[in-house]
Every structure is written in structure tokens, then in C-alpha cells.
Amino acid sequence: MKKIKFLIFLLALSSCNKYLGTVDPDYSPTNEVTEIFSDFEIDNDISDFEFGDIIFPKVVNPNLNIDNLEIEKIININKNSVVNFVNEKIIVSKDETIYLIDKNNQNKFEFELNLKSDEEIIRFFEFNGDIHVLTNRSRIFVIYGKNISELADFDIFINTTPIVSHKNLILVSVFGDIYDVKLADYSISKIDNFVLKSGITIKSNIFEDKTNLYYLFNTGTLLTFNKNNFDYYNNYILEDLNILTSLEGFSELIDSPFSHNENLYFLDLSGKIAVYNPISSDIIWELDINDTILSYLFSRNGYLILTTFNKILVLSNKGNIINSYSHNKESPITIFNIQEDIYLVSNEGISKLNLKDKSEDKFYKNKFTSNVEIYFQDQNIYLKDDRSLFLIK
Fold first, then answer.
1. For the segment 39-75, what is each residue's pLDDT rounded down to a tens digit?
2. Angstrom distance (rounded) from CA 24 to CA 27
3. Of 387, 377, 391, whose CA–CA distance to 64 is shortest?
């Protein structure tokens, strides 16, 4: 029965004309690129520039100002722990325990859940002033005061980040089904499904432009939703990009594509970068740095800052590599910024880099694991790895 349904879906998909923007019925992508920069050796080495406010992958408060970092461990966690910040509280999961930590006085409250053997917490979110808990079995709990209770059990396996709005929760199952949960009464309805492409499930962001949300189900499956009503589009942005590109194709995206000046930025783990207009189907520019991209920052001024195993690269909004910094860290993990300063996180600690002088200004020694997530909260930065949650102040 599943095979028959799958064949019917493929036939429907092949005749589908629903696409992002206005598309002629006989539309066929052509391999035309308006501007390509594909030589990694191009490096103008412009040292005197200001990349401005960082807006992707996370917005950084431009008023954040920390001269000398202090790294303080807040709590021991594990690799599956989830962290969020709601109502001046830090919410942390560890196995079946949920911790609520007051950011001001560090008071800690504990809540215990009775989870199934294959169940784990994947998200905390706020609704109507209350903290809600979502598991990968699509069970929803709510914290009232000092109590926690179950609100819904949909028994649907989900392994990616849900889409949370002020009144809806969009769940995507591991089998490619899309569900809409109305948070007012916790009713659920199936709204669509999609064909899964091969890829690895990663913790990615959900980005948006004027009309759409871009959601990375796995490294090879990109979904697009209407940002107002969460309608799912059967469009083929990633597939069309791979038809048009002069590179070998994008199949290991490190994050959802983000939008800048109405163009989408695609970053592939292998080092391929493409700036693509989804309406006109034009590739504005593309580049292959021929090195693994570990992490990135993107500024409002259009500068793209990349981390590889041995370099920090700065690209202009035209795709030119205008600055490069060779670091000597054996295990680089990610980067973050405080105003115009770039910090490199490695297994051994945090390095403050001077891109102008090609030097390391300061090094803050601390052991980190290879999986690091960074959160910005006012004048503080929180860093989570597989063992601990840290406060950087």
C-alpha cells in the first residue's frame, strides 16, 4: 500500500505547477549564471573594513560589549540536552529532568518527566505566558508554577525542530508528514506531506524572507512554508539551484538558506556557496572554497565570514575573498563575534582574533567538546557543548 501511495505522490509531484513566484507553464531552468567567482586564491587582503551588525545565523546585539571574557560553568548537561530562554529563566533538559534557572540569582527548580524509552525532549517554547515542553514523540507538557502536566500526546515521531508561532505549532514527522497543532485547544490536523531526499538530520535554523519560511528537514531536503498561514509549497528551489549551478551540486547544507536583498544564500559543508534568486531563478554569484565549512557569520552589510579547519575567510557581497586569517587550532569548532571582534571556539578554549594584524589577541583556556551552540542574551553569551552550559560574561 505504501508503494502505491508513493507512486501516486510521484505522479502528482511530476505534474505540479505550484512554485515560488510567477512561473510560466513551460518553465525549464537554464544553466545561466550572472556572475561567478570560483577561484579560491583570489584574496585582495583588505584589512581595513567593518562588517557591521551580525544578523545570521543569530542576531547579535550591536551594544554587546565584553572586553575580557570570563567563562563560568552553569550546569552539567549531556549531548541531547536542550536549552532555551523564557521569561528571565534558563530552561535546560537533562534526560528526564528539566531545570529552570533564574538568570538573575541562579536559583534552580527541577521537574521530572516520565518519558518512554525512545523519547527525548527536543524543544521548549512559550505560549500564553507558560513554558511548554515538546518531545520527539510529539507529546506536549506545560509547567504551571511548581507543577508539570501533560497537555497532548499525538504519538508522532519527529526529529527536527518544530515551527512555533504565537498560536500554531507545525510538526514534521520522520516519514515526511506535516501537521498543524492549534495551541488554543491542542487539536491536530495533517496538512501535507513531502518526498524526503537523502541527507543527515542536523540542528538548523528556520529563516524567513518577506513571504516565506525556509526549513531544512535534513542536509538535502529543503522545505518552504508561507510565513503567514504555514501553507507548504511544493517548490524545488534546491533542485533548481543544482540544475543551474556550475559547481557539482549542493547536498550537504550546513543550515537553512538565509535571505539578504531578496536573494538566498546556500552554504554547503563541502565549501560550495551560492547566492540564488528564487523568483528569477538567477544565480547571482557562486564560489567553491574547496575546504570544509565549519561555521559562518553574516552581517547586515553583506559580509560572509567562514570558518574552515585552518582559515577564517571574509567574503564581500560580490563573492570576493577580501580577507583571510590562518589559525593554528587543531580542532576549530565555531566562531562568534562581539562588535567587530571575531572569537574562535576550539576544543582548547576561545581565541580573540585580530584579522587586521593577522594575530591572536587573547586566548581563554577552557575544554569544550566538538558540538557547540551559542546563545546571545543581552550583555551575556551562553555556550553549550555536550557536557556543560557555560556563561560568558
1. 444 455 666 678 889 999 999 998 999 989 999 999 9
2. 5
3. 377
Q: Could you tell me how far CA 238 lies from the centroid of its own chain?
A: 17
Cis peptide before 162 (omega within 30 of 0): no
Q: What angle do CA 232, 174, 220 make, to 5 degrees?
A: 70
Burial level of 146, CB count in 10 A (0-12/13-18/19+)? exposed
Record the pTM.
Answer: 0.87
Tell whether the model's pLDDT for residue 345 goes beyond 50: yes
- Measured on CA atoms in the order 227, 138, 151, 101, is the torsion positive or negative? negative
User: Residue 391 and residue 16: Cα distance in Å, rounded?
Assistant: 49
Closest by CA position to 384, among listed 375, 376, 96: 375
Residue 92 CA to residue 103 CA, distance in Å, equals: 12
Domains of the chain by start residue, with CATH: 24-392 (2.130.10.10)
Q: In a 3-state reduction of DSSP, which class is residue 126? A: strand
Q: What confidence tier does 88 reach under pLDDT thresholds 50, 70, 90?
A: confident
Beta carbons within 10 angstroms of residue 258's beta carbon = 20
CB of 158 within 8 A of CB of 170?
Answer: no
Residues 6+ apart with CB under 8 A from 248: 272
Chain centre to alpha carbon of residue 164: 14
**Cα–Cα distance, 65 to 391 (Å, whole number):** 15
For cell 518526498, the residue is 195
Rounded to whole angstroms, the Cα distance separating 205 from 187 reads: 26
Helix or strand run (H / E) with residue 5: helix 2-14
For residue 271, pLDDT beyond 90: yes
